[in-house]
Predict the structure.
Amino acid sequence: MENRTSGLQAAPVDTTSTTITIKGILSLLLQNVDENDGRRLISLGMGDPTAFSCFHTTHVSQEAVVDALQSDKFNGYAPTVGLPQTRRAIAEYLSRDLPYKLTSDDVFVTSGCTQAIDVALAMLARPGANILLPKPCFPIYELCSAFRHLEIRHFDLLQENAWEVDLDAVEALADHNTVAMVIINPGNPCGNVYSYQHLEKIAETAKKLRIPVIADEVYGHLAFGDKPFVPMGVFGSTVPVLTLGSLSKRWIVPGWRLGWFVTTDPCGMFRIPKVIERIKKYFDILGGPATFIQAAVPRILQQTEEAFFKKTLYLLKQSSDICCDRINEIPCLTCPSKPEGSMAVMVKLDLSLLEDINDDIEFCFKLVKEESVIFLPGTAVGLTSWIRVTFAADPSSIEEALRRTKSFYQRHARKL
């Protein structure tokens, strides 16, 4: 493994795409914190809004979990595919935004969206198969693909077009061994939101190539720009869609590990008995979410008030605006596209303006060492000379983190 930290006291970083995880790199960055720095550590590296007091879940969510636990009815095993009432509630929740109705048979309950990703890739993998992943991308897809022996082929997200999919590249990459393409909307790590028209083009392209779409919608409905969130399942009659999601982001409960794998496929490609049986058998070897958390889901989905969602969107919009404004005051950093959704944004790093920093990994390791501020190196999501900044934080923390980053730049700026 190559040491990319230029003598800093940190473990070597393996930048092979199939070994990188966000938690792994953040763990290495944490090891590099100067324990003698009296300032508090500010981490804008992971999308966990619970770390900041301005973000918290609803009272109804907490009450639903407590009531389910205290009822003494949900201490045993749940069916491996999920409690019937949980599956039914998720089907009804997702159907609100679709031109057709899902049933509980379309829904499988998972331990967060990460497990849903693994299920999707496991179901599609076969010898010699390849999968089309966006670049940049949430790195778990590459890790899971490697474990499933799926060849990874990357298509670019076009930064100059608000991170839209390069559909020409998708067509050029696909062949008879391609099993799916992955779409993340709202986007992680880019903070983009796809329009109805662009999603329609994605569906038409996938139909032409005769491949299904894996739609990662873990940030579903967290759209605060001009474009509303449109689920990929809207185009399920055009192309089969596997929809992945969770409570984690919209309800601000990532630690509850409640996700879903859903066949949004009204034409029935994934309803073939052999396919359904294979999915069910795979779930027999998985451990799902805690039964009492599953039992709370119907009430959470049905009784959460719209005011809670609006407040979350307001906070994210406010924080994202502050984040981009402060980033653009630092000469070596540029925020080319203002985020329109999710909880993170990709920031361009101009290394030519820095004297003793060679890449985005070294930038992040030196920054945490000198300023106790954590960003995620772009290498972790497939883009070198970029960083990913999470803005799901309180405005004062964002202001302070970027004030320290500006001081860091001034100290390392190339002398003219």
In short: Confidence is low (pLDDT under 50) at residues 1-12. Residues 17-56+307-412 form a domain with the Aspartate Aminotransferase, domain 1 fold (CATH 3.90.1150.10). The chain is about 35% helix and 15% strand. The two ends are 35 Å apart (CA to CA).
